[in-house]
């Protein structure tokens, strides 16, 4: 019971915000229309139940006129039912896409807000594969929530509508056994209730493991798909290392988990299907078994028996709602659990950026320097990594940072950029300053080359002639004529070309502070030197801080700093101070 309450509370927390959003009136109107149509369909079912009495009595009495009039009456009801069913599906789908659009926009906004997506990866949150959460799971949540919610309401209204009818029919067709009428008020209602309750309990006992199995199936499917994408994105390195066999074995191991879990689903589904199919088939016969003795004892006519069977089937079907949709319920609960984990991951990542013992980024109106005060960077497990106190990167200065691999050079850049949450101390950045960080492997969105080089600005922010000239300056003249071509530029360009394109992006944006994290490491030394001279010429006012290991970079920097071993971590200091110590 507590688990049901918890699930329903989670569903309400996920679903309710849409109906209070800026799209609330459209959403509420569509939901009201879907519900109203469902209630109208229940009303038509009541009319058809009453029609059964008249129609089958006409057949028994061989009354042609009544037969024809009832056929016409049924045709009218069927026409109305068809129209209602079509528009209910149409409005339901319209509501689904509006609701899904709103939820996707909200999740995307929360996930991408202020590097939340990056912090979620750092803390290893429960929301694995966020792409699947925002595609498959949002779609399934909206679809299953609407279908289950409307179906449950329909079942409640059906029970309320038909119980009275069935209770009255119980009196008209009393239970007849061994030649005697047995007076049990509403025995047909009690029969439907007992039959449905027993079926629901047995279905749950057989099918409850499906919730966990479905959850794991989605995990394994997403893990397999993610690793396929990794192979595709790193196909060149795999081919060079002749790693195809190793990758095949690794992928088959992951797919083996998919197959093993699927076999568990098959086994459990076989059991629940065997029971529900038997239950549903028996439910066709059960009302006739109850009422047939009264019919053969001539207590009721054929129409009365058919009406009774129809009313019983409606009540029993409504009471058996959870049996009918149990497979969907198990899938729905697994979806709810995954979205709940995704939202919890978003909240945890947001709290990581706002807790008191974090690295504080402050704006200052001082001398234009980026200053580090009592800065301690830590790994996610709490291990000390970098210490920097009363250290500044002065405005307009070109600084080269060196240090052993793993000493925290890139992590220090991330802290200055404000995305590394583990640590303490303060980083002060000039108010309104523009920072750009270029890693060794820059990111380019899939699309036109123009959009790739202009990123993160919107496409069209720079004139085509300016972009073409910049590409020629960085040594990519052949790309100057391909600005409107679409491509996956991280795959089609070599790493050296990607680094040149990254520097072209910096030349276009003209940041006040440019951080180069081995951003020219894949270029030969003459090309690297030419690009640094280009930066000197085109960005004379930009403060540049570089991470690099080549001694040839010394000529292009005014100052050398080093991360030197100090206790359990590394300390940032000028290279002369480090040499002296």
Spell out the key features of this protein.
581 residues, alpha/beta, 11-stranded mixed sheet, two-stranded antiparallel sheet, 64% helix, 13% strand, elongated, disordered C terminus
What can you tell me about this protein's structure?
There is one protein chain. With 581 residues, this protein is of the alpha/beta class. It has helices spanning 2-15, 24-61, 64-112, 116-122, 130-172, 187-207, 210-233, 235-240, 244-296, 302-319, 321-324, 326-354, 409-417, 449-454, 464-473, 489-492, 495-509, 525-538, 575-580; strands at residues 175-177, 180-182, 360-364, 370-378, 384-388, 391-393, 398-402, 423-430, 435-438, 447-448, 486-487, 513-517, 543-547, 559-566, 569-574. The strands form 3 sheets. Strands 3, 4, 5, 6, 7, 8, 9, 12, 13, 14 and 15 form an 11-stranded mixed β-sheet that branches. Strands 1-2 form a two-stranded antiparallel sheet. Helix 2 (24-61) runs parallel beside helix 5 (130-172) and helix 5 (130-172) runs antiparallel to helix 12 (326-354). The longest helix is centred in the middle third of the chain and has 53 residues, at 244-296. It starts with a helix and ends with a helix. Residues 577-581 have low confidence and may be disordered.
